[in-house]
Design a protein that fits this description.
single chain; Nucleotidyltransferase, domain 5; DHBP synthase; nine-stranded mixed beta sheet; six-stranded mixed beta sheet; 21 helices; globular
């Protein structure tokens, strides 16, 4: 508590709140305090015919670039899709180049480049943390300082060097970027705003209010007390990769009994009525070490962290279940607090915790808000969008507009000529079809129980495949759950698949009364006719589709419905375990030919595996299989 109080007072807060952890004044408002920016000043912020802003997030995980033109998101993508390194944290040079090329812009046509957090504030947090835990953490301190002073502190120089940019470089705070990515992308004119993640500069949770083109985050929880880091710590203990596999823990939770370990979690976290919380740091090592948990944590849960290749036991499943239960309790209390403080009918959510679609479903069930908008790229990638939107609306004072980000199809697209060139270079046999033939043929192939790689239109922004870079199959065949998991995705058998449903048929199949276009809500399944997308607890992570969002994908499912009577299909991301979603025709063909997919539908071309068996790379297939058995 002393550390949190000190930081609050250092920003001139005055009185402390009655809340145990929520503090006032811990937000550095970009209008009220000078930006740590060189070669830029607010006299430059004036009305222009067209304002072009490039938002960037990088150096931590999921680096990305986003281009905003006159307040609208015209292009956005993650660097991982180009480098093929999952969760790539490197400078998003290729992503930024794509955004500029898409809009036919030179880098110096950009009015402002904005970074999604403030490096000096992050440095302050790291320094004060290491002072507080000293003498523990020397190795971690040396690693962090080497990283910071080697590159991460010199953001402006890196931007200018990599992009050749000569204009103003600006910074937002991390949680303001998250909050702006949700509010300014929503169609709300006002909203309560909640962000939750691991940690930004100091904040791990923020609560505030937005109206028109103004947004203020008023309450916050500070590091090391973090719901996101608690989730990541347990992810680490369960043998999964931090900042990458938290969603696996969410998928594992329904197999467990939360009651078995809830009392253990009560020792890890103290939760207060307003949703604020306090972690017992004697169980965690992330403040001072290079691991997330310590021996006290091991003793509490009866042993060391699970080896990533070891079998998952009921013990691990029960821990996952308890973690998810605690997470939902905290999230619901924070959201209720936000409603109490800022009585809007609208709620905006962002930050990595907002990707916990089970918790999101619980928020919906509470009916505290009439409308909820969750940024589809809620993690750090979405910070690139939010940073740029915050500058355009809040800082420059432009009037808030609607439909600034009407969908997530903001990435690369390829012409039929480019696709055909790739197929020819790979010596593939294929057929070319008209759009209507493609729709009918694909629907029939799904009905005949084929698994299909589907590559159409602009790539999705964010972690979910939503009908542009997807693997699709029949949801009515329960065997497809394991078939796609083990023989196509080469991933753990417990992981569920999401359904895509025609929006107008949602309530026939799911206990869900609102659209869910981004797979960010979990609800119960009403019918037993779609077992391949029904999780062990009877729920599903739902994507609803309407024609204006992706006409070809919608029309194909509509045709499948016409011939099968079912408006639901399996939709999972077009990739295999350990790789990002495919970006290019080459990525798609390589993934298709080295897995057990039956067909590739790419642009207007159909590629059948049975016609291309001579191209299957047995060594490549073994690489993808990892340790999985296909017997």
């Amino acid at each position: 508590m002393a550390y949190i109080t000190f930081f609050t007072r250092s920003l001139g807060c005055g009185k402390e709140t009655k809340s145990k952890i929520f503090q006032c004044g811990s937000i550095n408002h970009i209008k009220n305090r000078p930006l740590p920016v060189q070669n830029a000043n607010f006299n430059m912020f004036q009305a222009q015919k067209s304002i072009k802003i490039l938002g960037l997030s990088f150096f931590y995980h999921d680096s990305a670039a986003a281009l905003i033109v006159d307040g609208y998101v015209v292009a956005a993508c993650q660097e991982e899709r180009f480098t093929r390194k999952k969760h790539d944290a490197s400078f998003p040079k290729r992503a930024a180049s794509f955004c500029l090329a898409h809009a036919a812009l030179d880098i110096n046509a950009i009015d402002y480049v904005v970074f999604y957090e403030k490096p000096l504030l992050k440095f302050e947090r790291l320094l004060t943390t290491y002072i507080r835990v000293w003498p523990r953490g020397l190795a971690s301190f040396i690693y962090a300082m080497t990283s910071l002073f080697g590159e991460k502190q010199w953001i402006e120089q890196k931007i200018r060097q990599e992009l050749g940019y000569r204009g103003p470089v600006l910074y937002t705070e991390h949680h303001y970027a998250h909050a702006a990515s949700a509010y300014y992308a929503s169609n709300f004119d006002d909203a309560a705003v909640v962000t939750m993640d691991g940690v930004g500069e100091f904040d791990t949770v923020t609560v505030g209010y937005a109206s028109g083109n103004t947004m203020r985050l008023i309450r916050s929880i500070h590091f090391p007390h973090s719901l996101g880091l608690l989730y990541s710590a347990v992810t680490y203990y369960l043998g999964f990769k931090v900042n990458s596999a938290e969603y696996k823990v969410m998928g594992l939770a329904p197999y467990g009994n939360p009651g078995r370990y809830l009392i253990h979690f009560k020792k890890l976290i103290e939760i207060y009525e307003d949703g604020s919380f306090h972690l017992n740091m004697r169980y965690f090592a992330y403040e001072y070490g290079l691991t997330m948990t310590n021996k006290n944590f091991d003793m509490l849960f009866g042993g060391p962290p699970r080896d990533p290749e070891a079998a998952l036991t009921q013990h691990h499943k029960d821990i996952a279940a308890a973690l998810q239960k605690i997470t939902e309790e905290v999230v619901l209390r924070i959201v209720a607090y936000a409603k109490n403080q800022y009585p809007s009918t609208n709620l905006c959510l962002a930050g990595g915790v907002a990707l916990n679609c089970v918790a999101n479903g619980k928020i919906l069930e509470q009916k505290l808000f009439e409308h909820i908008y969750i940024q589809p790229a809620s993690g750090d990638a979405g910070g690139a969008v939010g940073a740029a939107l915050y500058i355009y609306y809040d800082v420059l004072g432009n009037q808030k507009q609607h439909d600034t980000m009407p969908n997530v199809f903001l990435g690369t697209a390829y012409t039929n000529d480019e696709i055909q060139k790739t197929l020819d270079e790979n010596k593939a046999q294929y057929r070319e079809l008209s759009d209507q033939e493609l729709i009918v043929h694909t629907a029939r192939l799904i009905a005949e129980d084929n698994v299909i790689g589907w590559f159409q239109g602009r790539m999705e922004f964010g972690p979910r495949a939503l009908g542009a870079r997807s693997i699709i199959a029949d949801a009515r065949n329960k065997a497809n759950w394991q078939r796609v998991n083990l023989k196509i995705k080469f991933r753990e058998s417990f992981r569920p698949f999401a359904p895509t449903v025609l929006e107008e048929h949602t309530q026939e199949y799911f206990d869900l009364s609102v659209p869910s276009p981004y797979m960010l809500l979990v609800a119960n399944v009403k019918k037993d006719t779609i077992p391949a997308v029904t999780h062990v607890d009877g729920s599903a992570r739902i994507q609803t589709i309407r024609r204006e969002n992706h006409a070809l994908y919608y029309d194909m499912i509509q045709e499948f419905y016409r011939i099968s009577g079912c408006p639901v299909i399996i939709n999972t991301s077009f990739n295999v375990r350990g790789e990002p979603i495919v970006e290019s025709p080459e990525d798609a063909f390589r993934c298709f030919i080295n897995t057990y997919m039956d067909y590739l539908i790419i642009g207007n071309f159909i590629v059948a595996k049975k016609d291309n068996m001579r191209l299957v790379d047995s060594d490549g297939l073994k690489k993808y299989l990892g340790g999985f058995s296909l017997d």
